[in-house]
Amino acid sequence: MAGKKNYPARIARAALGLRAQSVRTVKTWWTRRWLQSLEDMRLGARLGRGRTYAADGQVVELTRGELDGEVRAQVVGSRPEPYIATLHFSQGNERAREEIASAISSEPMLLGRLLTGDLPLEIAEMFRTRDLPLFPAGGTKGNYDVTMKCTCPDWSRPCKHIVAVLLLLGEEISRYPMTLLNLRGIDLAMAHGTDAPCDIALANVAATDANPAPLVRRLGAMPYWRGFAKFPETLLRIAAKVRPVALKAAAGESIDLRH
User: Fold this and answer.
1) Domain assignment present for 69
2) What whole-number distance in Å separates Cα of residue 29 and Cα of residue 207?
């Protein structure tokens, strides 16, 4: 009689990892291109499973190198230890990267839009004319310009664990398109000593929005958020409690911090 088969433990659906806030929401043209790049990989059911992993917090750690194009993540799966997913984005030749950086730096309008969270189409054209990839791309199935590895037993690439990582990266890229350039070895923000895009946006609205709701809507989903509730709703609840006390303090009134 055959021995009893040991099936893997059920995957926890309450993992305290990074939670995608908007895996199906598309607000910018570059987010559409990013998601289209994933769909072009013909992932089948892996795309849906990757979305579930991203939304359920299965990615418990994600790190991105400064300019080396490498992304590493730990993803909770069916085994006791998380799987290690590694991605490496190709960066082309150094001369082409320098040409792109120089071209953007010479156009203050392009640079300003990029540093404030916009991605002009002209920048995508700069990559195209130099035959450098900006978004994940590939010809035959599995032959992509992004090297993908995972310690899971699934032989398909990308597997659902890597898809979850790519979706979380997509959320960061949606808010900070500079990340796309960083992954390809270009970092204009550091070169010019500017603030991060999120700091610029916050400085522009913090002084004028007395009501927190407009500010929260403009902030949108927070990349790499770990809370069970979505970031905007959480922030609004906190703001609703803090705002009356802050207004009293600003007016010089005494406040009781014991409650």
Assistant:
1) yes
2) 29
